[in-house]
Structure formats: structure tokens, C-alpha cells
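Subject: sequence -> C-alpha cells, single chain

Hey, anyone have a minute? Need the predicted structure for the following. Not urgent.
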Amino acid sequence: MADELDDGKISPHAGAGGGDAISAEQLRDMLNEHIPPGTETLIVFSQCFGGNMAKSSHFEERDDTCVLSGSKPGQQSGYGGYHDDAAGALKPKKDLSAKDVHDAGTKGRRQEEDPGSLEAEIWNEDPQVAGKTSPEDFDLQPTGNDGPIHSRHVIVYAGNPTEKTCKAKVENGATVPDDTGHDMSFSDRADRDRIRTNFRNDPNATVEAVGGPPNVDDPSKGQDGWERPGTKGGLEAALKAAGDAIRDAIARDHREQLILFFSDHGEGTRSDEFEEPKKVEKNSRTSLSTPFTPFGAGSSYACAIAMHPEAAPGFELSMDVSRMPFYPDKDPPFGNDELALEAGALRLTNFEWIYHRWNPHGPAGSDPRDKIVLFFPVESERFLSEGVGEPYEVALVNNTSLDLYVTAVGQTTGSVGKLGRRQSDLPLEK
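Reply:
Had a minute. Here:
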């Protein structure tokens, strides 16, 4: 039996798609690993398919956490929409809370005139709230040694920082995308700089920006105003630094806060996760999902791929590391000619091997969160013509000398950036 999931991912720098992106589960695990329990946490997902992340089971019921999203599941984000107004309102001020941040972003969101249309499903931003802490209860008053909030640690993340010009209007202090407005420039860097300026005079606040390519001389650092590179390692290092600072302050018996602001690219995914790993014996063909429900032919996911030909969509297959009789942190013990993923009319033999290893010091496969992901890329036009629509069978042909154990199979849009100007030539279902 499989659990059908629509989920999202955060795209790292130069992330083409699939297994190298940061899933909701991985982000939750990083928070649990590095941030002390009881830390008041605010997460703002303003990247594409941020609603998928916010409404995942990993965040919707997370203790001591308020989650805001600029979109509902299945929606992209738009430049000039929720993100910039939310970033502007994210500041330390008496009587200010995360509700004010969400309200500001909601006021500036991208909207269509006909909310019931399919076009609105593609272009709208429908902001969402999740987590066990309500926005009203996440206090943004300034920090201080004698106040209720001792310290605050803000991390701004944009894997592939981008700048776009789109038409927008200024309405009641908010910038609202509008085809009848004026050309305005919006960027992830501008959001970063605005948040950094907002907290500059907050006594015990830190702001760290994680984004873009690594520094040529020191890959652990970023460049162009980003302290760390926009990779999983960069984000995890920033979370560890924040967690260490919070842990050192706990003895003061004050409240400590973590704020994560995600912008830029994201991914939409659709997957089947299996209660027990499916054994795919060597020299066999094994059905994994019968049937698998792919993205709809005219869905927002399909339209995102059509609008972003560089997105590199495809299928991903996760395997249980603990049952693998080899070292998963080495090159794969089999080649592209020994495995084939059959998804309906598609037969895919080219894959990328990604090993997600949680403990770099322990034996390979020693952590139950370790997993191997095989990402099978598909050219966008072919993906849209053969990989979306009605349900079909997904099977794995294993011509290796090893038995493999599959824990999940799914498909992804690949890395998708925020919407700029509106397009009319989309594969919308009529």
C-alpha cells in the first residue's frame, strides 16, 4: 500500500531537479537536529510551491512553530506578490507579530479577477498558515537582555537568487502585481537586504543570508552579500550556528527565536511512499505503483514546467540504504544500462545518483534518515506529452546483480522560479 503525497522542495543553488533539492522532511529533520526544543520558530515560505511545504505533515502540526506561506499547495509564487511585502513587514517592533507579516504579504499577493477560473489556480497566490503557534502569538517585539525575548536568529534563503521586472501597482502601501501597472523590479537580494536592514538595530538579533553559488576561495562561504552558499550544506551550517547560539543562551531563562525566510525557486512533487520497502529482485521487472497518479495534463504543475523549460522535470526513486550491501557514498555499483524506470509509455535508463547522508562521520547507512535517490530526468516537452495526465503503472527493471529496496517513487517539476509577466500560451485544460 502506498501513501499518495503532493509535497514540495526547496531548490538549492544550480539545482536542476530531483534528489538534490531539500524536502519538507529534510528541513524538519535539520530543525530537529540543530535547533533546541522549545525555540519559538517562524517559517515563511514565499518560494514557488511554498504551500506544499507549509501544508505538509512535517510542518502543519509542528510544536512551537508558526508557518506562513504565500501560496496554497499546487501554486507558484509571483514576483512583486506576497514575498516583498512580507519581507518589508518582517521587523522588530512593539505590538507587532507574525500576523502583521502575513497580512502585509496577503495584501500584496498576486490575484486574478476571476477567482474561480483555472487561470486563477495558476496565477493566484492564496496565502496559508500552519504550525501549532498562531501568527498572533509569534511576538516580534525587539529583543533584549531584560525582555521576554532574549535573542532572535534570522536566516534568509534563496538558492538561485533572481531579479525580474513585472507590472505592479502600489495600493495601500503594498506592491500588487497588475498588468495595468508600471514596470517594477523585484529580487531575492532586495528582500534579503530589506530584512537585514529591518533587524540592524535589534539588540540581540542576527541575520544570515544563505544563497547563490559558493565562494571560489572558500566553498563554505557565499558571495555577493550572501554569507553562505545556497546549498543544503549552507542552510544546515546556518541552522547549526543559530542552534549553538540559542543553546548557549538557554541558561538565561529567556525566550529565543528562529526565523526562516525562504524565497526564490521551489519544486512541486507528486509521490507514492510505501509502508514497507518494495523488494526489486535482481534480473527482474517489479511493479512499484499500479497505478501511479501523475500531475494532471492541465495542472499548475504542468503549466510550471511549460513556463520554465530549464526546470528539468523527471522521476525520482528512493531506496533503503540499510539493506544495500555496498557503500552508498561511493559511485553506484551499477550503470545506466542496468536499470530502467518504466512510467507508462516512458522507459528511462539515464539517472543521477544522489546519496543523502546525515552523519558524515559514522558508517555509511548508519543513520535511518540516510537514503539514496535516483533521479531520472526527462526533457520537458516529452515529460508533458507522456508523463502527465491519466494514471499509469510505474515499474523498475533491475538487471543488476543486487536486490534493491524501493521506499518511494515520484515525479517532480524540477526547480521553478517565481512568476514574472503573465503568459497566455499555457497548456490549460478547457
